[in-house]
């Protein structure tokens, strides 16, 4: 048998550059939620890719943004703290950029401090002309000794296999850290909470999403009187204002029903069985600064 390689990779970038979309594409499973809103990813989510001769553990980190709450600061601290214990950093930027913005420059400075091997990934190449991509490569190539610069489209899953090839050039020989059938460290309960939050992000107006989080109180397996297996799930969407509560519920409860219906379909697909999902909305005004809640988003 040949050499078995393994190691840890962190995926870093500004908010909304497509990190979660890329992670899902690489692992070929939906483990990170995606929405066209900032702060979609709030915690570090691991994806595990296992093949005959390698195992790559990639962590998707919260997007780098200007912190305004304890939660925001915790998310950024989590993202940068990952640099210390990884073999490779994947730095994701957008092909639509004309120059290096403050956010990307801040990330680059942290990468320089870490002195870690880094692959620059230019995402969303399907949205721009080739000249723009070449211009970005020219801007970045002299700023750090990148192991590779790879233009991709995570959304269309174009050129992403090249990322794995470049990671394997860097990874050391190592053990198998996870079983072959494990593809994430997230529990089904955590993934279900994130699915509900994803649907809420998708259907809500812009001012509401930042101020919500989802908590599942009950996640129970049972058999009904006909012997059919199902899960009973009770979840609460917490928001910051009464006005937000009204928006989330919607006229005649229609928006909340929509969020619950779409969430239930995704959760049923993940669990492979029927789900009885009930979702409530409650106000918890300052949750983004409450330590007991923020501790959930800290790196474990």
Strand order of the largest sheet: 2-3-1-4-5-6
Uncertain segments: 35-42
Beta strands, count: 9
Assign the CATH superfamily of the largest domain. P-loop containing nucleotide triphosphate hydrolases
CATH topology of the largest domain: Rossmann fold
- Provide the residue-averaged pLDDT: 83
The figure for the number of domains is: 2
- What's the CATH C level of the largest domain? Alpha Beta
Please give the CATH architecture of the largest domain.
Answer: 3-Layer(aba) Sandwich
Pattern of helices and strands: EHEEHEHEHEHHEEHHEH
Largest sheet properties? 6 strands, mixed
Percentage of residues in helical conformation:
25-40%
Radius of gyration: 20 Å
Distance between the termini: 35 Å
What are the salient characteristics of this protein?
300 residues; alpha/beta; Rossmann fold; GMP Synthetase, Chain A, domain 3; 2 domains; 6-stranded mixed sheet; 9 helices; 9 strands; 34% helix; globular
In terms of topology, how is this protein built?
Blueprint lengths: L4 E9 L5 H9 L17 E7 L2 E7 L9 H12 L6 E7 L7 H13 L3 E6 L6 H11 L7 E4 L9 H10 L17 H16 L9 E11 L5 E11 L2 H8 L4 H18 L2 E10 L7 H4 L6
Parallel strand pairs: 1-3, 1-4, 4-5, 5-6, 8-9
Antiparallel strand pairs: 2-3, 7-8
Helix pairs in contact: 6-8
């Amino acid at each position: 048998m040949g050499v078995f390689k393994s190691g840890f990779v962190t995926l870093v970038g500004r908010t909304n550059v497509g990190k979660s979309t890329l992670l899902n594409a690489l692992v070929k499973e939906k483990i990170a939620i995606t929405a066209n809103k900032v702060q979609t990813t709030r915690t570090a989510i691991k994806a595990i890719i296992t093949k005959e001769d390698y195992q790559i553990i990639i962590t998707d980190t919260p997007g780098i943004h200007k912190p305004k709450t304890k939660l925001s600061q915790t998310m950024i601290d989590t993202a940068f703290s990952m640099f210390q214990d990884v073999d490779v950093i994947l730095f994701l930027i957008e092909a639509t950029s004309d120059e290096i913005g403050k956010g990307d420059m801040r990330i680059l400075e942290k990468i320089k401090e870490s002195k870690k091997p880094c692959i620059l990934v230019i995402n969303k190449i399907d949205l721009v002309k080739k000249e723009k991509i070449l211009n970005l490569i020219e801007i970045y190539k002299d700023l750090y000794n990148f192991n590779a610069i790879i233009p991709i489209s995570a959304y269309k899953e174009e050129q992403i296999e090249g990322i794995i090839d470049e990671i394997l050039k860097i990874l050391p020989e190592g053990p198998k850290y996870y079983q072959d059938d494990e593809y994430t460290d997230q529990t089904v309960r955590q993934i279900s909470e994130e699915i509900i939050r994803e649907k809420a992000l998708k259907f809500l107006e812009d001012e509401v999403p930042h101020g919500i989080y989802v908590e599942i109180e009950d996640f129970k397996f049972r058999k009904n009187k006909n012997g059919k297996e199902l899960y009973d799930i009770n979840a609460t969407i917490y928001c910051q204002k009464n006005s937000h509560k009204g928006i989330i519920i919607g006229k005649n409860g229609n928006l909340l029903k929509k969020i619950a219906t779409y969430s239930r379909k995704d959760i049923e697909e993940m669990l492979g069985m029927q789900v009885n999902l009930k979702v409530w909305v409650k106000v918890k005004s300052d949750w983004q600064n409450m330590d007991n809640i923020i501790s959930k988003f800290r790196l474990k």
